[in-house]
Specification:
There is one protein chain. By secondary structure, this protein is α/β, with parallel strands linked by helices. It has 11 helices and 6 strands. A 6-stranded parallel beta sheet has the order 2-1-3-4-5-6, with helices on both faces. 40% of the residues are buried. About 5% of the residues have low confidence. One of its GO terms (biological process) is regulation of DNA-templated transcription. InterPro entries: CheY-like_superfamily, NreC/VraR/RcsB-like_REC, Sig_transdc_resp-reg_C-effctor, Sig_transdc_resp-reg_receiver, Tscrpt_reg_LuxR_C, WalR-like. This is Response regulator, LuxR family.
């Protein structure tokens, strides 16, 4: 008998995670549950799952930027995005960073297992409530577009490191704490913050937070 497919779940809502665990365990092996994007990257490297189910709005590092990093190091890893976001930009960004499935949380009970089965077969799955045309738009991009373009889909004028700094600032982390999380100097963090504010033409931490929420870079609601 074949071993069950190994799944790693990333969701910072305990009740949601527990519900998904009960949903998956009859058919799949849930190897772990993590509550933030940085833990996801660390556990995926350690556990080597077949599939990652990831929420977009994760603390410390959002699900889409985390997914982009995962695909760099584990290109064969299958990613299914599980989210409340049905907007076109989120769907497009998810497939650009390498997701194979996109499931709305409101439909998780009836669609997640189906999505996993489809992804295992090498197919793409999208919640029926999300128009198929959005997927076509995302996956039929010109081959001349690079992975760098995909990484910049979120807050497109910012680099991946600037997005990381922006999210942590929006989550209320102090400069020293951000430096520790990213393993860089305080001066480097301050440099990035200055560049971000100049690039986005924002002047205060409150404005940065508002922008980060609108861009989906933070789990703050």
């Amino acid at each position: 008998m074949a071993e069950p497919y190994r799944i790693l779940l990333a969701d910072d809502h305990v009740l949601v995670a527990e519900g998904i665990q009960k949903l998956l365990e009859p058919e799949f092996q849930l190897v772990g549950i993590v509550a933030d994007g940085r833990a996801l990257i660390a556990e995926a490297a350690k556990l080597q799952p077949d599939i990652v189910v990831v929420d977009i709005s994760l603390p410390l590092l959002n699900g889409l930027d985390a997914s982009a990093q995962l695909k760099k190091h584990q290109p064969d890893l299958k990613i299914i995005v599980l989210t409340m976001h049905s907007e076109q930009n989120f769907v497009t960004q998810a497939f650009r960073v390498g997701a194979s499935g996109y499931v709305l949380k409101q439909s998780v009970g009836s669609e997640l297992v189906q999505a996993i089965r489809e992804v295992i077969k090498g197919r793409t799955f999208v919640s029926p409530m999300v128009a198929q045309s959005l997927v076509d738009q995302a996956v039929n991009k010109s081959s001349s577009e690079t992975s760098v373009d995909a990484e910049r889909a979120f807050a497109p004028t910012l680099s991946s490191r600037q997005r990381e700094v922006l999210q942590l600032v929006a989550e209320g982390k102090a400069t020293k704490e951000i430096a520790s999380i990213l393993n860089v100097s305080v001066k480097t963090v301050e440099f990035h913050k200055t560049r971000i504010m100049k690039e986005l033409r924002l002047r205060t931490a409150a404005e940065l937070t508002k922008y980060a929420i609108a861009a989906g870079l933070t789990s703050i609601h």
